[in-house]
Protein 1
Amino acid sequence: MPPSTKQLRRKLINVLPNLVPIAVYSLHVFLAPYTKVEESFTLHAIHDVLAHGLSPTRLQHWDHVAFPGAVPRSFMPAILIGLLSYPLAALSISLGWVKTRVDVQILVRLILAVVSAHCFNHLSRTLRQRYGASVRLWFVLLSMTQFHIPFYAGRTLPNFMALPFVTLSFSLILRSGISSIPAKVSSARIRKSIILLTATATIIRLELAALLLPIVLSLLMFGRLTLETALIAGTVGGIGSLLVCSPFDLILWRPTLTHPDFPFDSYLQLIWPEATSLWYNLFLGKASDWGESPWWYYLVNALPKISLSSLPLAGLGMVLWFAGALRLIKPARTMSGAKDVMESFLLGGCCLVLVMSCIGHKEWRFVVYVVPIFNIVAAFTADYLWQFPWRRLRPLARVGLVGLVCLNLAFTALSTYISAYNYPGGQVWRILHSLPMSGSKPVIHYTNYPLQTGASLFTFTHIPLQSRALPLTQNEWTYSKSEDQHLETPSGALSAGLDYVVLDANLYSSWEDTRDWHVVGTVQGLGKWRRIGKWMLGMDKEIKIYVMGRADGDVRGAGGIIEV
């Protein structure tokens, strides 16, 4: 007997919200496939896992040995993503689906995006099981029309390596409150959430302790967790994760202790990378070297920007719930779910924002973990407003909700368009592939700006490596990331024997009149805003990167200067 229309509709309502996050996160990966320097540690570690494996005999070839960065981070997230990526990359290469290392980078990012989407779907299914399909649909709609989390879900920033586990922890805590499950199952879910959140804070982002501890306190206050269980779960998550991860981190970081740019010289500083990073950035004040923001930055700038319409909806939801609790208005059954969320997560979210506001260096991604909380409360509010009890005002409420979603979409579309042009360094490999490389082993030097804006080990496509997870290359090129400023001058680059220099446009003036070098390619990016007509604004494109080739070599492409 064929399924009825009602059954098909029910299946579609259940299945479609699971597919939307995967599609949205993946779309953002394809629209902006390149990465910034902030993502490079984990991304390059994944590359090295794929290229060299975990053998100690290959450790000297890992990128961090030559470029260790400012502080140590745990390699465990990169190892996990690398192990997930290896068989898929090898299979895709053997089937001819992946042809370049840039394709492997996209594949790696897609895997991370799918992991993030899976954890998001776990939370959305929890909302459906506990509060109904309509709350889940609003949660998915509000979350997927935002810009920051969908755009960064497939990026290897430490915060977005941690966010999937934070989301999964939230889901387990909410799922523990389903009334139909046995008490043992409920207790086990809370215990798992504490273990997971503690391990994530210990290994990936230690600032999550400011979220974890108040959440544990809230669960203790409302009788959902015992002190003994909290201590055991915290010990298992914290010490257990260190016992697993510390040997890997110690072995992988050990060669950097003698590096002149690495500010640490003790094995003890490598056992727990997150604690070392916290000491260096917070207690030694090194985070301020990256700039400081006023205490109100998160409240006035970051949270409204990353939450968009969810922030006012969440604020309204809190007001409605408090008003109902005080009997100022008739309590709304739909808003009762907001009570569960606020009891579990409100204290933790507030403490995280408060603690991070006390630190001078601020970035929106440091508090991104509270956005799912806002989105959940906003979903309750939207569901309530869509079924507003005063029928005469219901159409107005629905128009307002549609308008808020449209504002989300407009902001996201504009931000995605701008961001897609914000990675000029990632486009350089296209120019290099179009050039008739003279000589058996051309030497290509990258100045700082291209490395900051998209160039990665995956875009260095002609490094000879024997790995099933990376496409083989017939021609061997030598890539330089040296910070020697002498190489940024025409004479210095010539005397160093470079064949090509990937040059920041701001440095081009000193190269413009030289006879030793020619422009062989340019990469454009977005420039300044300009007015179009009376009401519209547009952005001009301008050259961000010049690729310079030696004048004494056959460096020009068949069509002259190559533009991308």
Protein 2
Amino acid sequence: MADEPMITVVVPTYNLGQFFKDSAESLLKQDYPNFEVFLIDDASTDGTGKAVDAVAAQDERFHAVHFPKHEGVSVARNYGIDHASGEFVTFVDGDDQVKPAFLRMLVEGFAQGPADVVTVGYTWGRWFESHGAKQGWQAVSKRAMFDAVRARGDEIGGYVWNKAFRVSVLRDKHIRYDESLTLAEDLLFTTEAVVAGDGFWFNPAVLYDKINRPGSTIHSATMAMRQKEQAVRRQMDALGDKI
């Protein structure tokens, strides 16, 4: 196991109930051994914090972190970047589920050649049932990667949860989540990582299941939040001009 690169998994949680238990169970079933998981309880009030502790007690690779007050997903993810021991880092939403090969395939992607960002396929309800029809690793140019991140509904997309990032690049280039954002923070982060990175690989094998949960941020976004998203997209376009 020591010869295999470590990958860090950052899992923000907040009042997720049974959704978190199902998500954690999918991480406990990973077939890749060399990983660590930060389960970050963002001051939950529904018992999620106790569930986080219970999972961490089952496996020493899982670390429970409890924020004293609610900070938001960006603060939680930045905590993971700051404390990661892995060569790579990925971000799993605490109400989603991953296939047993999720971490193994992400690490495998970095072995395909020079790579700073690796992406795998996902499902999101009925929206993307056809994703994953093709298999195998594909090199992606920087411009194509940027365009895929910029596009809505693309099988690569601007999401962080179907990707892994090289930690040294994030730290050296000071790439962090904008903690003022509650929507589209992943779009901006992924765009900055692509602009800063060199080498991108994609495997459309479906390894991440995005769960539609009532009350999630994407389902409860306000007009002000949507306006911020449009501002983020303008920032993304400006970054794209540098490619």
Protein 3
Amino acid sequence: MARAHLADPHMKKTAKGEERIETAEIDATNMETKELNDRLRDLMLSGVQKIALRNVCGQRYIGTRLYNQERRKVEIEIFGTPGNDLAAFLFGHKIIVHGNAQDGVGNTMDDGEVVIEGRAGDVLGFSMRGGKIFVRESVGYRTALHMKEYEDKRPVLVIGGTSQDFLGEYMAGGIVILLGLGGKSHKGNFLGTGMHGGVIYLRGRVDKSQVGSQVEISSLDGADREIVDHYVSEFIERFPELGLNKEEILKDEFMRLSPRSKRPYGKLYAY
């Protein structure tokens, strides 16, 4: 069985003169999901602040068990393809994936940031209630399903490409931005089905037939443009290899999808 190891650790003197490892590396070759997540948690609790995971291949729940009362934060770089539920319940940490991700990224994510330098699968941001996820390319089905806001937290998804069907299904809060880079048209259907909160910004156009009956299509106002401008800037910062020009992106038409009602199915209930 593969063992985790520390590679070229950076050492730092604490106030008591003790040495503390700040960076570490795990070789995940043939490593079971539980062992990998146990090792991650142990390193985080020991004071490691940056961890590189190499040869990742389908291990699930990476980043899920990093909650801690001391509010220690760690940055995780993943080389390979992580399995389902990456960053589920993420608690303020940062995860960078040098490649693609599978389904369920950011499931019930509380805070923090995920950067995916490729594509992501289905149900990205499911029940996400805080933090930010940036995906360089496109995503699968049911992205932002039941995404919501909690107290002062407002989750954000920024997607460089486009999405498959049921984007924003039952969405209750947060911000989703689809940039359609590379001329990708938005062909997904049933956008915003059951949507009763939050907002979706699309660069380009969609036909009314693609959008749920509960959704209003409108142009952007000044406040909307400030939001899009801000998160497009953040997207460009995270993917400098794309060589994007913000002005070129923002000059194109954007559409705003928002709910017509906070209770789209209210007539179906007796209360």
